[in-house]
Specification:
Elements (H helix, E strand, L loop, with lengths): L2 H14 L8 H14 L3 E7 L3 E8 L5 E3 L4 H4 L7 E3 L12 H4 L7 E8 L5 E9 L7 H63 L6 H29 L7 E4 H11 L8 E4 L4 E4 L1 H17 L8 E8 L4 E8 L29 H11 L4 E5 L5 E8 L1
Parallel strand pairs: 8-10
Antiparallel strand pairs: 1-2, 1-6, 2-3, 4-5, 5-6, 7-9, 10-11, 11-13, 12-13
Helix pairs in contact: 2-5, 5-6, 7-8, 8-9
Length: about 375
């Protein structure tokens, strides 16, 4: 084996991040299945570096680490696979190996299949063994190869999941920086427009200019709101805490934040429970739902909102936000939770809010649905764990 091959193998093994960690349940299940399929009392997944053999999952014995020169698998790592040895004492490659002689073990039967990463690097083996001589039939040999492929699948899936989490973290960080960079000049523009509006307010000849300034100010506010929504949406990929959250306190904070848009609105609230979840993300759920109710009012009746909760069973509670606004047609009640979906062409919503709500509720192990409020309007009900 050349130094280059050893370096590639070590790099491939390191990317999977399994050395030095407890055995993964998926790998343990595979080695147990391999032993049962092959009729052997023991099986293991070996990852082999330039100096050591690491048994990262084992069945029938305790996994461990040994020197590379003592490893049976390392001795044949570069040979054709699969390898079946009925009695290792009669094989010149293994008869002096400490796993055969009794110094470490008393292996007689030995069979292995290479583990090859997606980039073509052999990183170790899936092997089965016994302290008695035996052999495998063709179906067992084929099954060993199939299970070796599944070992690599498990390692690759874990790697891709970590990469995706890192990508989401970078995306969230990028969204935060972009949000800051966009909002700073936007705030400056908005303040300048408002100052101009105040100076023109006393000029009777400046009606057209004031109207244009009002339009520009409203546009800048909508842009700022959209930036906040995009940042909140991106940050949902981050870690979620699981702590007791008093929804009554959360609702109080939300009503305080929305006091301007809900000015004069009748908001009735029943007792709300303490649930298990992330307070910041659950706050975004209530804030989005109440903000939506404010945006989509009915043109002929004053807006009224009711927030209530009811026990579903011993572990779940259903929270409802009901309004008497425009409502959501039955045919659109699933579609509105999809990203960037808006039911009208006006500028009242970005199409992000309800998808954010859905993602948060699902991340908390719950479900969400929309129904019609008796008398007209929309009722959004979501379930959470208590």
């Amino acid at each position: 084996m050349t130094d280059t091959t050893g370096a590639l193998r070590r790099a491939s093994i390191d990317q999977y991040d399994v050395l030095g960690h407890p055995p993964r349940l998926e790998l343990t299940a595979i080695v147990e299945l391999a032993a049962k399929v092959c009729g052997t009392p023991m099986a293991t997944v070996n990852l082999i570096t330039d100096t050591e053999q690491h048994q990262v999952a084992a069945y029938g014995f305790d996994a461990g680490i040994c020197r590379r020169e003592d490893s049976m698998c390392a001795a044949v790592l570069g040979q054709d696979t699969p390898l079946v040895v009925p009695d290792a004492r009669e094989d010149v490659r293994f008869r002096d190996n400490p796993f055969v002689t009794g110094a470490i073990g008393s292996v007689r039967f030995y069979a292995s299949h290479q583990l090859t990463s997606l980039d073509g690097v052999v990183i170790g083996t899936l092997c089965v063994f016994d302290d008695k001589p035996r052999t495998l039939d063709a179906e067992q040999v084929e099954a060993l190869g199939t299970l070796a492929e599944r070992v690599v699948d498990v390692l690759e899936l874990s790697l891709r999941s970590r990469q995706l989490a890192q990508s989401n973290e970078r995306l969230s960080s990028f969204a935060g920086r972009v949000s800051h960079d966009l909002k700073s000049p936007l705030t400056s523009v908005s303040m300048s427009l408002e100052m101009l509006r105040e100076r023109l307010a006393d000029d009777d000849q400046a009606d057209d200019a004031v109207w244009l300034l009002e339009r520009a100010i409203n546009g800048s506010r909508r842009m700022a709101s959209l930036i906040d929504e995009v940042l909140s949406y991106a940050s949902l990929g981050g870690a979620m805490s699981a702590e007791p959250v008093d929804l009554g306190e959360v609702l109080g904070d939300v009503l305080s934040d929305l006091s301007g848009s809900l000015s004069g609105v009748e908001v009735s609230r029943g007792p709300l429970p303490t649930v298990v979840g992330d307070a910041t993300q659950l706050r975004s759920v209530l804030q989005n739902l109440l903000d939506n109710a404010s945006k989509y009012r009915h043109p002929t009746r004053p807006l009224a909102i009711a927030v209530s909760a009811a026990r579903v069973d011993d572990t779940r509670v259903a929270v409802s936000v009901a309004d008497n606004g425009l409502g959501v047609p039955a045919a659109d009640r699933e579609r509105v939770f999809e990203p960037r979906v808006r039911l009208s062409d006006d500028d009242r919503g970005s199409g992000i809010g309800l998808d954010t709500v859905r993602r948060v509720v699902q991340a908390h192990g719950g479900s969400i649905a929309i129904s019609e409020t008796p008398g007209g309007g929309a009722t959004v009900t979501f379930e959470l764990l208590v």
